[in-house]
Known about the structure:
Blueprint: H1 75-78, E1 84-91, E2 96-106, E3 110-121, E4 124-125, E5 131-132, E6 136-150, E7 153-167, E8 175-190, E9 199-214, E10 226-245, E11 248-267, E12 273-297, E13 303-318, H2 331-334, H3 338-346, E14 353-368, E15 373-384, H4 388-392, E16 394-395, E17 403-404, E18 412-424, E19 428-430, E20 433-434, E21 444-463, E22 477-496, E23 501-514, E24 519-520, E25 528-538, E26 543-554, E27 577-588, E28 592-599, E29 629-637
Parallel strand pairs: 17-22
Antiparallel strand pairs: 1-2, 1-29, 2-3, 3-6, 4-5, 6-7, 7-8, 8-9, 9-10, 10-11, 11-12, 12-13, 13-14, 14-15, 15-18, 16-17, 18-21, 19-20, 21-22, 22-23, 23-24, 23-25, 25-26, 26-27, 27-28, 28-29
Amino acid sequence: MKRMSGGTAFGLGCAFFVVLSGQVVAQELFVDPTVVQRHAKGGPPKLITPETLLTADPMHQFRHGALEKSEGAEDSVLGAKRPVKVTTRFDGAGDTKTYAGQAAIKGAEGFAMGGYRFEDSGSYEGGNGEEVDAGYRREVRQFVTGWTPSPLASLKLIGIQDDITDEKQPHHGLDLLETDRKVGRAILETRNIFGTGVDFESGFKLIDLTRRADNYSLRSNSGQKMRVAIDRRIWEGQGKASFDTAGWENALTFTGTHDNHVARRYNVTNDDKVNSVRIPDVDRDTLALNLDTEKSFGAEQDRTLKAGILFERVHTAPGAADEVPDGGPNPALFNISPRTLYSSYYGTTDLDATDNNLSGRLRYEQLVHPAGLTVYGDASRLVRSADNIEKYHAVSGATTSRWVGNPQLSAEKHHKFEIGTIFEDDAYLDYQRKKPGSGLFQSVRLSGSVYYDRINDFITLDRARGQSGVLLSDGAYVFRNVDANWMAANADLQWNATRNLSSRMNVTWQRAENTTDNRAVYQVAPLEANILVDYHESLGSLGTWNVGSRLRLVADQNRLDDDTATGSGFDEHTGGFGVLDLYAGMQVYDRMSLSAGIDNLLDRDYREYIKGNHIENPGKSTIYAPGRAIWVRLSGNF
C-alpha cells in the first residue's frame, strides 16, 4: 500500500458501512422476515459495529427511548476524516466509564482499520432512591480491511469480538458471567461481469456465541447452585446478482445458513450434573431465494414501484432430544428428556420439522407535485418459522417454572398493510439544517404512517391450561399458535425555526390483540411521545457549540397480559411517566469536543413497561430506571 498523508486519512463514513449492521449482513433485503422476530425476544444486546464504536451509549436494559438525543457539536469531531479518533465518557448511572478508539490507514488499493472499546459499569440509584445491583464489563475489538485492485472488484474482511462479562441481572435469578460473540465476514464484489452489466456479490459470515450464567458467582446463594452454558455457531453463505431489465432494477439473492445451538443447565450442588437440556443440540438449515425489483415511472420519474418475493426452506432437528438429565434435586421433576417433555405437553414425538415459507411485498410511492410530498402504500406477507426457543426449549423442574417449546408450531404469517406520507418543503435539508434565507415557518419535515397487521398462527407464550393443542394443565410456560391483530401509528415533525434553533416531536402508538383468546398481547409498548429542542451556534472562528433537551412522555399501559390463570402473566403494571434530559457540547477546530448532560433531570421514579431483555426467560420482573445522572464525554482526532 502507498503511504497516505494526514489530509487523505481514511474516514469511516456511513457509505462504507452499508456492509455492516447489528447482524453484520451484506445488505437489507426488501422482503425480510427477520423484522418479525419472536415477540418479546431476549438475548445478547445489540452488537457494536465499527460505525457505532465511538458513538454508542453504554448499554442499559432498564432505560429506553423511541427517539435518541441529537448528536450535537461533537459529531464533526467523531465523523472527521482523520486516521485516529478517541473518546472517553463517564456516566453517573452506575459510575459507568467508557474508553474507545479507532485507527485507520488507506493506500492506493486498500485500507485497514482497527478499533477497541471498553466499558465498566456498576450498581446505580433508581429514581425511588433504592440501589439497583446491576453492572457489567464490556470489551469490543474490531478489525476491517479492504482491497480494491480495480474499479470492478473489491474484497472486504471484517472481524469483531464483543465480550461482556460479570453482567448482573437484578430482574432474574441468574447473572450472565460471560457473553462472548465473535463475528467474521468476507465480502467479494465484482461489477459488470464480462461486460454484461451484471454485478455480483458473494459473502461468507460466521457468528460464534458463548454465554455462561449462574446464580452464585455474583450474588449470595444458600440454596441450590445452578449454572447454564449456551453455545451457538452460525455459518452463512450468500450470493447476489444485480442487473437491469427493461428499466427494472433487479436483485437475485441466494442464501444458505447452518445454525447449531445447544444449551444445558447444571446442578452445581449435585456434582455439577446436567439437570435440564434447555436447547437439545438443534441443527437448523435454511435455504432462501429472494428476488427484488424496482422501477420508476412517469415523465419526471415521480412514481416508484418496488416488489419482492422470497422462498425459504427451513429444516430443524434436535440431536439431543433423548438425553435424560441426571442432576435434578428432585429426579421426578427434573430428570426428564426433551422428547418426553414435548410428548407430555403436546403429544408429539416426531421432532424433525421442515417449513416451506413463501413471503412477498409490494410498495408504491408517488411524489405529489409541485414538490415535497410523497405518499406511499405498502403491502406484505412475511412468514417466519418458529425459532429454536419456541420450537425446542426444554426446561424441566417445578411445573410452574418449566418452559417447554412446541415442535408442532406452524410458521407465523404476517399480512401487513401500511400507508404513509412524507412532506419536506424546499428549505428543509436535514434536522438542524435549512437553506439560507428561508423564513420562520419554512424548513419543515412531516411524516406519518399507520399499519394493520393480521397475523395467522402468531406464536405466543402462554401457560399450560389444557387449551387446544396443550395436554396438561399445570401452569408451565408453553408456546401456542393463535391469531392476532396488530395496529400501529407513527407521526414525526421536524422544524428548523432558524438556522440555529430546531425542534422535533415524535409520537408512536400500537395495539395488539390475541383474537383467539380475546386478550391483549404481552409486552406491547404504550403510547410514547418524544420532544427535542436543540440550539447550535458558532464559537467565532474556533468551532461550534450546542445545547438541547429531550422530553420523553410515556403513557400508562392498561392493556396487560398479567394473569397466569387466563394468560401468560408476563406483564406487570408500571404506570406512565415523563423524563426530561438536558445536554450540551462544544468542539474546537473539528479536532476536540466536550459534551455533557443530565439524564432524568427531575429524578423521576419510574419503571419501563418493556422488561430488560438481555436474558432469555419469561420469569423476569420490572426494575427501576436510573434516577438523576450526569454524564460527560471528551473526544478528539489526530
